[in-house]
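Reminder: ligand-aware prediction takes two inputs, not one.
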Amino acid sequence: MNKNLGGQVETAEHSFAPAFLNRNDAGRRFVEAFEQSQASGLDAMGSALAHELNQPLAALTIYLHSLQRLCLKTADKPPMLQEMVDKSLQEALRAGEIVRRMRRFSTRSEPDRQPFDINTLAEESIDLAMVGAPRKIVIERSFEEKLPLMSGDPVQIRQVMVNLLRNAIDASGGKNLPRISISISASDGFNHFRVSDNGPGVSPVMVDRLFKAFETSKPKGMGLGLAISRTIAQNHNGDLALEPRGSGGGACFCLKLPVS
Ligand code: ADP
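Here is what comes back for the chain with adenosine-5'-diphosphate:
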């Protein structure tokens, strides 16, 4: 595994043989990590969906309530109108109840806070993100050493790191020499995990919408990764932000998490 010593930058083509091909223990951990990431992603997606649906459904219910009252007061109305409005309101209330249950379900799993080493978690995230990525991507690491252990939910934080890395892989995909730089450093009581790429950068239309759910510029994108990632970062008293372009010319995202 590539390691960076003394804060120097190490450049290496990533090894695309996942760890589990070589070592059974590492293999099991890798598969577990992958499954946890998927589960955590689904959980977060349910939560984001429920959050987005909540407001329009509440508005719909209010409008239908008003319509129902109006209908009751109107003597000369088309046949069936009252019944159709009543049924619409019932269905809107039912949808609202489903969304409330979804929210309860997806927020039920409390973050499993435990101490973790950010550099180790970053290496695991790189392994996960690289599954199925083009071979030619060059990964540069600049990891500060001996950082204090952090406290948080490593499954959720790994999910954020993988999201950022996958976005960087997508963005740099069109380059002859795709390159991703990952740095980890500490300052002011926070650890900073930065991912920059040499893709085209964030398009001007997306800049203000990046962290909103369901905003995407990708044909098959969901537009949930950054919204979920920022929520996770903020739930850990940290943040996720787009930074000015790095030397690679593309986008640079910084995940900031407090040292425990
Ligand atoms: P998705 O990847 O499904 O589109 P995200 O929330 O992860 O969802 O990203 C939202 C949008 O932000 C992307 O569609 C893209 O337009 C933009 N974006 C994210 N990361 C990058 C990046 N590294 N370079 C350029 N644009 C990016």
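The radius of gyration is 23 Å. Residues 203 and 259 are 33 Å apart (CA to CA). We will return to this case in the review session.
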